[in-house]
Amino acid sequence: MHSKNIEILMKEYKNRIADQILTDKLEAMGAVLIEGPKYCGKTSLAAQQAKSILYMSDPETRNQNLTLAKTNIRKLLEGDTPRLIDEWQLAPQFWDAVRNEVDRRDEDGQFMLTGSAVPPKPKDEDEQIFHSGTGRIAYLKLRTMSLWESEDSTGEVSLERLFESSEQVEGTSHIDLDHLAYLTCRGGWPKAVLKKSEKAALAQAIEYYEAVVRSDISRVDEVERDPELTMRLMRSYARHQGAQATAGTILEDIRTNEADILSENTIYNYIKALKKIFVIEDSAAWNPNLRSKTAIRTSDTRYFSDPSIATAALGLGPKDLINDLKTFGLIFETLCVRDLRIYADAIGGTVYHYRDKSNLECDAVVHLRDGSYGLVEIKLGGKDLIEEGAKTLKALAEKIDATKMKQPSFMMVLTGIGDYAYKRPKDGVLVVPVGCLKN
Q1: Which CATH architecture has domain 6-141?
Q2: Nearest 5°: phi and psi at 420?
Q3: Beta strand 111-115 pairing with 31-35
Q4: What torsion do the CA atoms of 413, 417, 419, 424 make, to the nearest 10 degrees?
Q5: 3-class state of residue 433 by DSSP
Q6: How far is Cα 394 from Cα 371, in angstroms, rounded to an integer?
Q7: What pLDDT shows up at residue 44?
Q8: What is the spatial distance between Cα 136 and Cα 104, in angstroms, rounded to a whole number?
Q9: Pairing relationship of beta strands 410-415 and 373-379 according to DSSP bridges
Q10: Where in the chain is the domain with CATH 3.40.50?
């Protein structure tokens, strides 16, 4: 097995929601592709269930493995199952090899593939040709750890149970403003969660950001990209968290002088590369049936995959967030969207964003496969902001045509600070601190 200390590995994953998702997918499919940002724990997650492992990036065997992948790739697939192939994208031909081997064996739970980037398409038509993995290979997106997984949330309010009934909600949060600022800057990186000192924990996000800027954005497809431009783009992206900023808007934001020769195509190219390594995970627009014709804005909403990427890009620490609550609120929204995505994955749901031409906006819509959905507004906390969030939720709920789709299962203001979860008697809106939420 891996040289990592097993005791620490078990501690890191004893509460990972994705562990059960992986189990379910292995039972249903021949192979599972686990994708996600670097350092989010993909290999550790898969190693918990693997019976044999092939580390493609191991410097001692890398060249040998790459050669074998071109000459006799089936040899690399031999081993007890489920077999983990880590950093499989180093030899993209694994995709078809695994697909064909799953067909040949006709058994589920054969392989797990992990990697921190979407593999590039072959440059030569004679090279590997990708085929669909439909019916053979399942997908699992692993994100950084939610507050429930890092044991910072009490988990007394279950998102799944809210879809079953939102008549009563009870929960207690122990997160105050100072600690919330720290959690936002720390992020959900497993190594950061396990660090004993706050200084060491906060350093993980900075190191991740530096790796993205200096090498990862270029290594994803072997296209050399400018670290300075990457830094400026990521700072702009951080300032536009939760917004529907266009490439043109970001372009204007990062121009430092008129001599900059940049185009929107360049910005798109960099954003695409950041998406390939899962630094960016934008939120798609929700398109419900409404009572009257209202133009719904379909642009994606900008988010990093973890809030700490935004704070690292802006050079902000916990104290900086407390001194700038407006910026804190924007980046806190990224934290909440990350957690909602993780919790929604566990119950077969997807998180969207809503905004229409009248600028009525809902930060998150959690939508399940059966058509059920919950409306969520995200606020740092405080009476006025909660009132504002509840007003928005009611306005959107009243626009929805209940003859063509279900009524919302719940309306929730998800807050950063606040001691208790409760239901407002006057409008039925739930007020839930993120520090007591779980899947």
Answers
A1: 3-Layer(aba) Sandwich (3.40)
A2: -135, 155
A3: parallel
A4: -20
A5: strand
A6: 19
A7: 93
A8: 11
A9: parallel
A10: 6-141
